[in-house]
Amino acid sequence: MATKPGLFEDATPSLIKDSKGLYMVTQSTPNGQKVQILLEELADLYGIKWGYTVINIGTNVQKEDWFLRLDPNGRIPILVDSTKSPAFTVHETSAELLYLLKEFDKNDTFGFKDDLERSQCLQWLFFWHGSGAPYQGQLNHFGKMAPEKLPYAINRFRNETVRVYNVLEIHLSGKYTGQPREYLAGPGKGKFSVADMGTWPWVKGWEFSNVPKEEMDKMPHVLAWIARIWERPAVKRATGEKYQLDKLAEKFGKDEKGMVHVKEA
CA-CA-CA-CA torsion for 33, 36, 41, 43, nearest 10 degrees? Predict the structure, then answer.
């Protein structure tokens, strides 16, 4: 049977198909938390609303056709913006952060109007997307999930994760500029931006990834940056029970595929 063209199919959850606004499909992993944080920050600032579905990627539901129509790469999170006609989908977390910034942050509170400041923000956002998350993700895989523990792989990806953490430490400490920073981008000490949102959800998980504490103790500015961002109310919501599958299931119930759908955040 020929595949019907289009963004949605019969198996697409009805809340996604019927949404008239912004919708997210996620799981509260580091990648999911990046976008969850920005949405929660935008809610505090502008009162924006969105619906969302939380899945369990361990079931491989993200490899089903209805999901691949939204993101052929089969990864969370996905944004579906049905304020556009036809509905517009966004995948890849950095692209999603930049899309939300352009569409919903009219004052560039979490971005930058100055071209050079914006370039700095993009540099750090892309640095973590391309050089940080892949290393730490592989460290988690070989150290936590792989059926066979391979010392070479674990050591390689642990060493690379520590190396990119040290890149953040150099930048935040002001080692070569003489100006310590509170955030990754912006003049002076910087300001909280999508560069931080795209990086922090991974780095705050250093203990889960078994990054040695003696290595983290050498990075006081990274540790202070982690603690500083943890204190933001939107960050606490974005990483808390609001997006935890089991907690949501207690309130809303799961569908036949183990997903939970929330009409509006």
Answer: -160
User: In the numeric block, which tokens belong to residue 55?
Assistant: 């899945």
Q: Rounded CA gap, 148 and 261, in Å?
A: 36
Q: Give residue-wise pLDDT tens across range 216-261.
A: 999 999 999 999 999 999 999 999 999 999 999 999 999 999 999 9
**Sign (positive/negative) of CA torsion 9, 14, 16, 17?**
positive
- What are φ and ψ of residue 80, in 5° steps? -125, 115
User: By three-state DSSP, how is residue 170 classified?
Assistant: helix
Burial 140-176 (b: 16+ CB within 10 A, else e): bebbeeeeeeeeebbeebbebbbebbeebbebbbeee
Q: What is the pLDDT of residues 12-23, one digit of tens each?
A: 999 999 999 999
Beta carbons within 10 angstroms of residue 23's beta carbon: 27
CA dihedral sign of residues 218, 222, 226, 228 = positive
| The pLDDT of residue 1 is above 50 | no
